[in-house]
Amino acid sequence: MASCSSCSSASSCASAGHPGGESCIESAMNKQDEMIARRLERIRHKIFVMSGKGGVGKSSVTVNVAAALAHRGFKVGIMDVDIHGPSVPNLLGLPSGIDMNEDNALVPSRYNGNLSVISMDSLLQDRNTAILWRGPKKTAAIRQFLSDVAWGDLDFLFIDSPPGTGDEHMTVLKLIPDALCVAVTTPQEISLADVRKAINFLHHAEGKLLGVVENMSGLVCPHCHTEIDLFKKGGGKELAARYGVPFLGEIPLDPVTVVSADRGVPVVFLDQESAAKEAFLKVADAVAAAAEAGKAAIPPAE
Fold this sequence. Notes:
By secondary structure, the protein is α/β, with parallel strands linked by helices. The chain contains ten helices and eleven strands.
């Protein structure tokens, strides 16, 4: 246990002489809150990518839209708060391990000069290790991702979230009240039903919805380039219209996305042109334009 003698607040602390007391913990939390505020002041736009449904491709959308903006010259970070199933480092081909700077702050893993990442996977020696954590530990980890990571000056910080509307989502919205939320869905009703719940969560949590992205929107045949409505199309656009928010774009299923993910290279960084690459670039431009325009709003109740 730490000694009170090393604490700068020892002279005025009600728990002096009893490290770990309630006042001591409150003082530490207040200092961490101050550090979080200082880190966030240097980040222009915080984009919270979410969906009530698993398997809709949130991480793929996060990585490729972030990479597209980095490709456009923006300074971009990705904070992966999917504690139990982090996949961002794999999608970017980043190894485990993380460094600390001279101020003892964590240095996010660099993909290139414009794109950096922090994730639980960055901290694990063995990526097959399961994270057996409940809410308080997950909340503490997210707080540290914001307070202890030297993000520096960023144009965009993308926050990749797990499915649902649980601890991670509530923690992010509490710590980052100006977060702009992007809802990712696939076109079919089984996905839309859960995304509507996520948007309802934003209403109650007073989170700002920037817009909707429809992923897996049709399949582009790699041979004849004909588009097939494999999971239907248009569900995301209808959802955006229903809540009066921008429809940020649609991304088709494309075999190149599987190849790029396995290689750890974002689609937008591949030399070859593809339907997915074109779509991700368009969505990235739409996200940037909507963020700059300040179009996000708390979604209405239904």
